[in-house]
Amino acid sequence: MRALLLGPIALLAVFLVPPVSAHEFWIAPSTFAPDAGDLVQVHLLHGERFAGTPVARQTSMIKRFTLVDGDGETKVVGRSGAAVSLTRAADDDLQVLVYESNHLRNDLTAERFEAYLREEGLDRIVSERAQRGESSEAGREVYQRCAKALLRSPDATGDEVDRVLGLPLELVRLPDAADGSLRAQLLYRGAPLADAGVVLVHEQTPGDLRRLTTDTHGCIETPAARGGTWMLTSIHMTRVADPDRLDAEWESFWASLTFQR
Q1: Is the dihedral of CA 99, 32, 12, 87 positive or negative?
Q2: Mean pLDDT of 98-122
């Protein structure tokens, strides 16, 4: 893994926001189209529909935070507690910023947990809790954040639009359909995840929220003629096989993908 050397800069400390108040986490780079050698500021945000609060870089919670290009990975650097991290763009048509967190906790009362599940379209988990007689019990959940942002050189000539990076839950942009429709695939531990909810939103029209469902190949396709910045998000939750190991009954994965087209 290549090292990135940067001079001292002023960095702003911010506070982490609890997940129940807003359920999207994404990467917001200072540019989606850097020239080779450009210094890219990388912001982590938490909120809804592009209205986000900065998430402080917390070194102990980072499992992977890198820029991936055709030659490998470069660590995205920064100080713990900072609002901004940094990386330097490589000389490659396509580069992918990737952030994977360690486990975070989300313990909620029964009422709030049930509301959270319904809000996120996790009706399958609501039903499973009911079948187990747990609907009136508090929800003990651990979750991981699995975020990507696609950077493309202004002079890019290739047709590669994304890379599969092995996240537990991963949204992968696919080449647009012949009619210009936007296409993507959702992978869970490397395999297509069918019948899963995916949300699509444009930065300039956050009120136009599209709730989509993956097909048998884990894919979604939807008309999206407008250019600009888009975000795809998805949440997948599973029952923990060994609750004592994680001190939780449920494990979820929050995936996001930000890009321009």
Answers
A1: positive
A2: 96
Contact 52, 45 (CB under 8 A): yes
CA atoms within 13 A on the CB side of 229: 17
Rounded to the nearest 10 degrees, the angle between the axes of helix 110-119 and helix 123-131 is: 140
Q: What is the pLDDT of residues 31-63, one digit of tens each?
A: 999 999 999 999 999 998 898 899 999 999 999
Whole-number Å distance between alpha carbons of 133 and 60: 36
Cβ atoms < 10 Å from Cβ of 179:
8
pLDDT recorded at residue 22: 53
Q: What is the amino acid identity at position 230?
A: W
89-120 b/e (C-beta count within 10 Å ≥ 16 → b): bbebbbbbbbbbbeebebebeeeebbebbeeb
In terms of DSSP H, where are the helices of the chain?
110-119, 123-131, 243-246
What mean pLDDT is predicted for residues 72-88?
A: 97
Cβ proximity of 143 and 253 under 8 Å: yes
How far is it, in rounded angstroms, from Cα 112 to Cα 4? 43
- What's the predicted TM-score (pTM) here? 0.89
Q: Nearest CA to 67 among 103, 29, 104? A: 29
Q: Give the helix ranges, DSSP H, for 33-171.
A: 110-119, 123-131
Tokens of 127: 């039903």
| Measured distance CA(98)–CA(255) in Å, rounded | 11
Residue 182 has pLDDT above 90, yes or no: yes
